[in-house]
Amino acid sequence: MKKFIYTILAAGLTAGLASCNDWLKEESPGNIRFDDFYTEGTVCIQNVNACYTPLAWEYNKTYFPEWYIGDVASDDAIKGGQNLADGGDLYDIDNFKINANNAILLDYYRAKYQGIQRCNLALQEVAKMDPDDTMSAERKECLLGEAYFLRAFYYFQLVRVFGGVPLVDHVIDSSTQWRQPRATADAVYEHIIGDLIDAEKRLWNKSEYSAEDLGRATKGAAQVMLCKVYLYMHDYNNAYVWGKTFVDDQYRGGQYSLCGDFGENFTLAGENGPESVFEIQYMEDPTSDYGEGFGFTRGTFTSILSRPRCSSLGGNAGWGFGHPTFDLYNEFESGDPRRDLTIGVPDESDREEVEVNYLGNPNYNRKICYWENGAFPALSHATRSPMNYRLIRATDGLLLYAEAALESGKDIAGAKWALEEVRARARAMAGDAAVLPEFPGYLGYSDNSDDLRKAIRHERRVELALEGHRWFDLVRWGIAAEVMDKDRGSYGKNESDIVRAEMANFIKGRNELFPLPAEELDLNPMEQNPGY
Fold first, then answer.
1. At residue 483, what are phi and psi to the nearest 5 degrees?
2. CB within 8 Å of 417: residues ≥ 6 apart
3. Whole-model pTM?
4. N or C: more exposed end of the chain, with fewer CB within 10 A?
5. Radius of gyration over every alpha carbon of the chain, rounded to an integer in angstroms
6. Residue 253 contacts residue 269 (beta carbons within 8 Å)
7. Hey, is 358 helix, strand or coil?
8. Residue 352 · residue 429 · CB < 8 Å
9. Is the pLDDT of residue 5 over 50?
10. pLDDT tens column, 195-236
11. Residue 20's CB: how many other CB atoms inside 10 A?
12. Are 307 and 344 in contact (CB under 8 A)?
């Protein structure tokens, strides 16, 4: 999949998106129609490959990986960088000083809509094509399933950051269609559900893909996403149905399993491994340039962004963004081997360097910085890494199922089983049965629903730490203010004075969402989110 996923549609495809002005009576010579381009199944495969590409984009006018929001906005990480001024837009996200001119949000918003437009094109044109020797009828249905899944995923990324957004399910091929009304968040979620259900019917299981196609959306990915989206909608009954479907059909059915070593998930060798449900595909690309614009690389900036700034690493040092908080470090139970595989702490001599520390914190995210065998491998390009970014792991699916089983009241035993399934691996890695005891025998938990809920949320935080989930979990649980408030929140109270001094007060009812980008409102007037 890595060598196919970045296939960009030929220039003729995008040329076909332009419509003639009303005054033009005849088509210009050389104009290419969709029918001229879509002549064989290979083109359909290329079109769907192109639908994946915006997932990988992290840079246009600024850097905008989703973990900037999912981790840095939360209690799991602080901005980092060379100093306070380095990455001012990220500083604002970190400290609830955000405004509608934030460049990170603008690029994030636009990248997702480019992905949606590519999916709309695939759903329009691939559906018309007849199978041929390059695309069987079964492959055609799976391709449509991939496009439905990806469109749902892009809208999911948008709605949980901005709330309601324009809902476009067709190709925009005229300037008269540029302005689209803002849909409600509920309408967007319903559309996502519809796309995911269409996707789940068509997609293949992971085992049905050839090795070169690993990384494509699967039936299991759609099932996990259906469970997750229903949880965001607080529809716990449907969340339970889809969580159980994933567990029974995919996990117990042998499509996915947990790696024996938790750390294997975050290595090059572990990409698209037994625990991987869906991840962004990156590859080695020494020819990437330094220019502005989406799509100028097939490698990821995330590794260099998150590596520590230690001078001892020489050319393998990074830019030091996304420092894991001491609050996250302390969340791990004593002896939990996942802590040191998640949070890196530089050697004592390196910690003395000013630029290694950010507001007194030297920690770095070991999951995403491309760290292997006790070293930081050299990058073939100064800023790009081949390390995939894990979007969905099987443990995410298990813990979502546990949450749905509890909140629906349908399967308390199943919730405990899934929780234990995740903890059992960490306990085995610790090599001590007394470490990470089963529920309810840890952290003072009693055997009741309230404490089981706390246990599942604790496990999501430590198992999935620094994988971009935490902020969105806090918001959907309705506890973002309870945790993040500078003076009364658990994070605010536990953080150091030097970190707290940079924070603005968290405003409940405002800071759970981010502002729609001002430039987008200029182009397409919409009501702004409350408080912005």
1. -90, -45
2. none
3. 0.93
4. C
5. 23
6. no
7. strand
8. no
9. no
10. 999 999 999 999 999 999 999 999 999 999 999 999 999 999
11. 12
12. no
